[in-house]
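User: Fold this, then the next.

Assistant: Folding the first:
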Amino acid sequence: MVKLTRIYTRGGDKGQTSLGDGARIAKDDLRIQAGGAVDETNSVIGIARLSINGDIDAMLGRIQDDLFDLGADLCVPEEGRKGKAGHEPLRITEKQVKRLEDEIDAMNANLADLTSFILPGGKPAAAYLHLGRTVARRAECLMVGLNAREAINVHALTYINRLSDHLFVASRHINDDGATDVLWRPGTNR
């Protein structure tokens, strides 16, 4: 378990931060930007959960825990390094990806067929999940860029890709299984 006794350390005042293995890197490094976008995704999901209950809320709670796992995964480079305390780094697993896929399939089974692209909207929680989806896509783009520079956990990349799909399907589920989705009307305002 994590124990924090101080919130500020002054260690980042000059634009650098520490990774989980103790290495110091610039705060604008792709690794830090990706972790920040993952954290932002988590925050948006937290807002969406304010007006959600039941199975979807439980799914989103598991996802929020997973996103902290993903942040921890990104915090320690894949290059075989161990964390500061000599522990094996926490990594996203194939099992976590599979759980997302199973949840997507279960929610998708009852959704109305898509007849157009969907605009973010409908119920407030659905709109927030669409926002979370777009932030997750940004996190994925940053992670892909990082992976081009140095290898990261393949399951982490798959997880963030699947997460945006999950949030899309969950938003449709919240919008009365798609009945209250806001549909794009191409060329309507020409």
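Now the next one, as you asked:
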Amino acid sequence: MSKMSRLALYVLAPVLLFSLAAALRAEDKAVSVVEVHLSEYKIDMPETLPAGPTNFILINEGGKSHSFKIEGPGLDGPFSAPVPSHTKGALQVTLQAGEYKVTCPIGSHSAKGMTKTLTVTAKTEG
């Protein structure tokens, strides 16, 4: 093996090992992406989700501003900034197994029907 080949091996081997380790860690911490459609006076989203990091993509299809508030195990009311009509927002949280209450905290929107119960199931080991 030439001196150049050995040098390339010494330089590339740690990079490849680091990349493989990072890919394995990223797989363990994969973020679920969930679309949430907001409108007057409705929240349309799945009723059941797996535990773990979750990125809620908030799509306001209504004519008024809406927001997204989630309360449950480990969360004490994280909520998004108001999402103007016909725009998108996002909120990332880590969900634990259990039951969550999802609402629009703007004005009387939740009293008018913008409320939902979300069940989060324990992550299964695969």
